[in-house]
Design brief:
This protein is of the alpha/beta class and 271 residues long. The protein has a single domain, classed as UDP-N-acetylmuramoyl-L-alanine:D-glutamate ligase, CATH 3.40.1190. The chain is 38% helix and 21% strand. The protein is built from 9 helices and 9 strands. Strands 3-2-1-4-5-6-7-8-9 form a 9-stranded mixed sheet, with helices on both faces. Helix 2 packs parallel to helix 3 and helix 3 packs parallel to helix 4. The protein is globular. This is Bifunctional hydroxymethylpyrimidine kinase/phosphomethylpyrimidine kinase. It comes from Streptomyces hoynatensis.
Length: 271
């Protein structure tokens, strides 16, 4: 038997299972790839927020990365929560040794508003991590943190994209999900623009959306999809996951990473 495409996530652990490493691995499995992980931090986290964070030393991050890449190999890499300047610097150096596509989700703040990136690490993300990215996927708060550009409406998305592209990624996907109206994102490499729209679902259970989207893009890139096709397919998957998001705990529940399987199962049983 042949192994499926291999995708590596470099991110923090979410003990509640809705975001981070856990969301990435669920997404990769749902989309037919073999997910592998480099854990950068451990969080005590649930539906109400992040109660504690413990960063791993950069040596542990590098050892995990080399262990996977040198033996198993990767066909795409996705980064998420990197937490500290030292870990960001380490990961940027490691990514330079990999010939696979890299999706950088420049995680700065959790969906509950908890900080996940040290203040002194932001500049390292700008000048060391983003230049290694095949695709960067910032949300509007991360665009402001990285570039100072404030997006107040859809008309501001091209200016935001240009500011992020100036930091070095080959492509950028500006996620406009927090704007009113349809969920609209802009994907561009500085020449072609791809506008992606999806209906907004009235579901508050959206924890892990950004992690899931970046992981889904990485999974499609591992199959060899060009960037626009990978992003389009990932957006469709995430839109379905948001629609199927479910309550968990007393706060914001997760998107449903298994919605495709549940739909197939329901169809197969006639329910």
């Amino acid at each position: 038997m042949q192994a499926p495409p291999r995708v590596l996530t470099v991110a923090g652990s979410d003990s509640g299972g809705g975001a981070g490493i856990q969301a990435d691995l669920k997404t990769m499995l749902a989309l037919g790839t073999h997910g592998m992980s480099v854990i950068t931090a451990v969080t005590a986290q649930n539906s109400l927020g992040v109660q504690g964070t413990w960063e791993l030393p950069s040596q542990a991050v590098a050892a995990q990365f080399r262990s996977v890449v040198d033996d198993i190999g990767v066909q795409a890499v996705k980064t998420g929560m990197l937490a500290t300047a030292e870990v960001v610097e380490t990961v940027a150096g490691l990514l330079a040794t990999v010939g696979a596509p890299v999706v950088v989700d420049p995680v700065g703040v959790s969906s509950h508003g908890d900080p996940l990136l040290a203040a002194d690490a932001v500049d390292v993300v700008r000048h060391r991590l983003l230049p290694s990215a095949t695709l960067a996927t910032p949300n509007l708060a991360e665009v402001a943190q990285l570039t100072g550009v404030l997006v107040r409406g859809e008309e501001d998305l091209p200016r935001a994209a240009a500011a992020v592209l100036a930091l070095g990624p080959r492509w950028v996907l500006i996620k406009g999900g927090h704007l009113p109206g349809d969920a609209v994102d802009l994907l561009t490499d500085g020449s072609a623009e791809h506008w992606l729209r999806a209906p907004r679902h009235g579901n508050r259970h959206t924890h892990g959306t950004g992690c899931t989207l970046a992981a889904a893009i990485a999974a499609r890139l591992a199959f060899g999809d060009p960037v626009p096709s990978a992003v389009t397919a990932a957006k469709e998957y995430v839109t379905g996951a948001i629609a199927a998001g479910f309550p968990l705990g007393a706060g914001i529940g997760p998107v449903d990473h298994a919605h495709l399987t549940r739909r197939e199962t329901a169809g197969g049983t006639g329910t």
